[in-house]
Design goal:
Blueprint: H1 2-29, H2 34-39, H3 45-55, H4 61-73, H5 87-122, H6 127-141, H7 144-158, H8 170-175, H9 185-192, H10 195-231, H11 235-242, H12 247-275, H13 279-284, H14 290-299, H15 303-329, H16 332-335
């Protein structure tokens, strides 16, 4: 197992280096002068030339690349053209809000998706299976922005049960200060004992969480069903049934355990995708996360911020994929 993990870590480093190299090349190929962005639209030629020297753009490309790698090794993702603040510092402010949203959404996806896939496989070609497949295909196929707007229309406009957006209501922030211990608002409210703000934050989180969770619920359900249908036809399952083992034990203890590998891989990759692709949901629900940050960076051509989010997303993908590989490798057959 240790050799397997080391091999995966080395391959992950190669992938990350490839992503970093591509981002470096793209920033030099895109027809835009970073020095102009840094100096400002009204800067003189002398100021633009001075900005080029400050950013190191006057040096040869190989020297710039080595300097770029050296900065990344020290945790420096560059400086934002808009705010003149380190991108790593800005990401640290925006990532917790998105991370909290995605984590809760994926807990919902696992809690709902896996049992749905299990019972769909158990009741193959019955009414429950047809309903489950219909729901799963719809969950995967529906556009995210349409789901978000539909939920707002139903639960805010029509039923008036949930807020339309934001992370906290105005009254919650006026009468109390927002805790900032870990950056995860719900956890911070629990740690500081602010239960009123906890309830307010939870009500604001329901609609965006459902919107984000819908796709992984459908994906997890479909993959769990597909894997279980294949496993339930294996000889050892037939042998277990012939020995008189209960169907429940065969399904939950033996079949499900052997289907976790496929499901874990899909869950990990979809989580990485969702973590860096929430800008539509965050824009619709006015959520102050990484999606809002990258949207603003794209509209202002803030390349350091765009590259910082790209590298952050690549790291998330690599880590989650590594975790999924370790889960899969727990099966001795995979290690062999």
């Amino acid at each position: 197992m240790i050799k397997y993990i080391i091999k995966r870590l080395l391959s992950s480093v190669v992938v990350l280096l490839g992503v970093i190299t591509l981002t470096f090349i793209i920033t030099r190929v895109v027809p835009s002068n970073p020095a102009v962005k840094w100096a400002g639209s009204r800067a003189t030629q002398e100021q633009i030339a001075q900005a080029s020297i400050e950013l190191g753009l006057d040096k040869p490309l190989p020297v710039q690349y080595v300097s770029y790698l050296n900065q990344l090794l020290h945790g420096d993702l560059g400086t934002s053209y808009s705010s003149k603040q380190p991108v790593a510092k800005e990401l640290a402010q925006y990532v917790p809000a998105t991370l909290e949203l995605v984590l809760i959404a994926f807990v919902l996806a696992i809690i709902v998706g896996i049992p749905l896939g299990i019972y769909s496989a158990k009741k193959k070609d019955q009414l429950l299976d047809h309903c489950s497949r219909f729901f799963s295909i719809g969950a995967v196929s529906l556009p995210t922005f349409w789901v978000a707007l539909f939920l707002q229309l139903i639960f805010y406009k029509t039923l008036q049960l949930l807020p339309i957006g934001g992370r906290l209501s105005v009254t919650a922030t006026v009468f109390d200060t927002q805790p900032n211990v870990t950056g995860l608002l719900l956890l911070d409210c629990v740690l500081t004992g602010k239960w009123g703000m906890f309830r307010d934050a939870l009500s604001h989180m329901i609609l965006p969480c459902i919107t984000i969770a819908l796709y992984p619920v459908g994906l997890v359900s479909r993959m769990t069903r597909s894997a279980l249908l294949e496993i339930l036809n294996e000889d050892y399952i037939t042998a277990g049934r012939s020995y008189g083992l209960s169907e429940r034990k065969m399904l939950w203890k033996y079949a499900l355990k052997n289907s976790i590998g496929t499901t874990a891989t899909d869950v990990a990759l979809s989580m990485g995708y969702t973590l860096t692709d929430t800008f539509l949901v965050e824009a619709i629900f006015s959520w102050p996360g990484i999606g809002s940050y990258i949207s603003e960076a794209v509209t202002t051509l803030n390349f350091p911020a765009i590259i910082g989010v790209t590298i952050f997303g690549a790291c998330c993908y690599i880590i989650l994929n590594l975790v999924a590989d370790i889960i899969v490798a727990m099966d001795p057959r995979i290690r062999l």
